[in-house]
Amino acid sequence: MNENLFTPFTIPMMLGIPITTLIIMFPTMLFPTPNQLINNRMITIQQWLTKLTSKQLMNTHNPKGQTWSLMFISLFLFITSTNLLGMLPHSFTPTAQLSMNLGMAIPLWAGTVVMGFRNKTKISLAHLLPLGTPTFLIPMLVMIETISLFIQPLALAVRLTANITASHLLLHLIGSATLALVNISLFTALITFTILTLLTILEFAVALIQAYVFTLLVSLYLQDNT
Amino acid sequence: MAKPQIKLATEDQNKAICRAKGKVAINGKLCKQSTFITYIRRGSLAVLEARMNFHREAQGHHAGPSLKSAALLSPGVLQATRIFHTGPPSLASVPPLPEYGEKVHFGLIPEEFFQFLYPETGVTVTYVLRTGLILYLLCKEIYVITPETFSTISTIGLLVYVVKKYGASIGEFADKLNEQKIAQLEEAKQSFIKQIQDAIDLKKSQQALVQKLHYLFDVQRNNIAMALENMMRQREQEHMIGWVEKHEEKETIDKCIAHLKLLAKKAKAQPVLHNKTHESYNWVHKAQFVIPFNHNRVLIVVHRVMIPLSTPLAERKNWNASDCLRELRKAH
């Protein structure tokens, strides 16, 4: 039973053992490996989508940046599938946990920053100061830019967590409102409609993945290309 | 079991015969190899039986002749010569598998479940089971109506709607993608085949042209011969002119003219069908047409063409010496 509003976000246990790892590994079963030249419909559509997305993501990079394409595509597919599976009733979304999103964001961001500083030190340091600032503002601006650089992984993680958690919570709340109103009045029809529209908007959580990878992409792009 | 009445040839002999004829000689008759194997199996079975009899005999029973030497090998021979399927497999043993699955209820429960229940319950099992199960779960609060129920309803409702409406078109889209892939590869294959075919045709035509190369050589030979002939005639004319100029005496010229008149009379006496006789023409070669031959050569087909002298034969009989000279010079 639901004791409070946050029970959907508790770690699911089976006989006292947390099965989060199994849940995280489940979406891999939904992407079978293509065995032949001409595959079944599901694999064909997945291939087509992957091709589309990867072209969209990676065509702005130089060859050095394009070595990250596998990483980006797997990240994208993982977050998309996990979010979409979390939409099903009574399911658990791993990406709603801040710990996991931090675990994804910090290493990736750190990787790009370190790569930029190792290969193009001057240019990376120069990013800390925007062009055309007045001289007396430089120290403050450098500090602000450094802080904004270090906030990037936190922002990535928290953005994803907050969005997923908030949408799930909202659905739950509106569902409980509906439940309460069923006995009182028949405005429930209207509210169910609201739920429906909210759901469709929530399915654009998939767009968050785009935002996630895009921000990462932008940072890598800037650091590799100047 | 009937005792085999076959004298088996030795293994080496049989092998040689098999190799030679592809058949096996058994008892002086040629049989198929499968028959041979059958006989061997029967033979080894007979050997096994003989072995058994031998044992029985050892224990005091009477038995027929036994092949003691082959007794040890017979079970192995039996296993090794087992006939496997050599003919085409019969299609009637396995029923054809269905291509598509059966109907499913709720997308989860296949129709076979209800077919399985049909003998016990009849045709109403689907409806009764469905309604009863749902009501049971709800009444006994096994399935609790929570806020999540409503999100469930919306989510599942939306999904079902989308799948029912757009499912077929998405499937067709996937099929189209696959077809495009195949069409691309097929086109590549066809263009490759066409390229090769064009190359083959080109080579064949080149071969054919090479076959006709002797025409070219003939024509060249003719050309050279004609050129030589012309050269000779020119030289003759030059010589004649020179000779006439040198010996410009009246007598010899009159003699010349008399000879020419005689010739003219002879020519007149003979019935001349047309103006174009052999002697009155000069051979000239003229290029008829040009064929491209190989990539950087051309084949020139040449034709011998006759052009007439400027004066017709009838006028020539009244020539004098100056006329003679003039005509010779003109022709030259």
Automatic annotation (TrEMBL), chain A:
Component of the ATP synthase complex composed at least of ATP5F1A/subunit alpha, ATP5F1B/subunit beta, ATP5MC1/subunit c (homooctomer), MT-ATP6/subunit a, MT-ATP8/subunit 8, ATP5ME/subunit e, ATP5MF/subunit f, ATP5MG/subunit g, ATP5MK/subunit k, ATP5MJ/subunit j, ATP5F1C/subunit gamma, ATP5F1D/subunit delta, ATP5F1E/subunit epsilon, ATP5PF/subunit F6, ATP5PB/subunit b, ATP5PD/subunit d, ATP5PO/subunit OSCP. InterPro entries: ATP_synth_F0_asu, ATP_synth_F0_asu_AS, ATP_synth_F0_asu_bact/mt, F0_ATP_A_sf. It comes from the Eukaryota. Belongs to the ATPase A chain family. GO terms for cellular component: mitochondrial inner membrane; proton-transporting ATP synthase complex. This is ATP synthase subunit a. The chain crosses the membrane at residues 12-31, 67-86, 98-117, 137-158, 170-195, 201-222. It catalyses: H(+)(in) = H(+)(out). It comes from Monodon monoceros (Narwhal). CDD domains: ATP-synt_Fo_a_6.
Automatic annotation (TrEMBL), chain B:
GO terms for molecular function: proton-transporting ATP synthase activity, rotational mechanism. Keywords: CF(0), Hydrogen ion transport, Ion transport, Membrane, Mitochondrion, Mitochondrion inner membrane, Transport. Component of the ATP synthase complex composed at least of ATP5F1A/subunit alpha, ATP5F1B/subunit beta, ATP5MC1/subunit c (homooctomer), MT-ATP6/subunit a, MT-ATP8/subunit 8, ATP5ME/subunit e, ATP5MF/subunit f, ATP5MG/subunit g, ATP5MK/subunit k, ATP5MJ/subunit j, ATP5F1C/subunit gamma, ATP5F1D/subunit delta, ATP5F1E/subunit epsilon, ATP5PF/subunit F6, ATP5PB/subunit b, ATP5PD/subunit d, ATP5PO/subunit OSCP. This is ATP synthase subunit b. PANTHER family: ATP SYNTHASE F(0) COMPLEX SUBUNIT B1, MITOCHONDRIAL, MITOCHONDRIAL ATP SYNTHASE B CHAIN. Subunit b, of the mitochondrial membrane ATP synthase complex (F(1)F(0) ATP synthase or Complex V) that produces ATP from ADP in the presence of a proton gradient across the membrane which is generated by electron transport complexes of the respiratory chain. ATP synthase complex consist of a soluble F(1) head domain - the catalytic core - and a membrane F(1) domain - the membrane proton channel. These two domains are linked by a central stalk rotating inside the F(1) region and a stationary peripheral stalk. One of its GO terms (cellular component) is proton-transporting ATP synthase complex. InterPro entries: ATP_synth_Bsub_B/MI25, ATP_synth_F0_suB. It holds the Pfam family Mt_ATP-synt_B. It is found in: Mitochondrion; Mitochondrion inner membrane. Belongs to the eukaryotic ATPase B chain family. Its main location: mitochondrion.
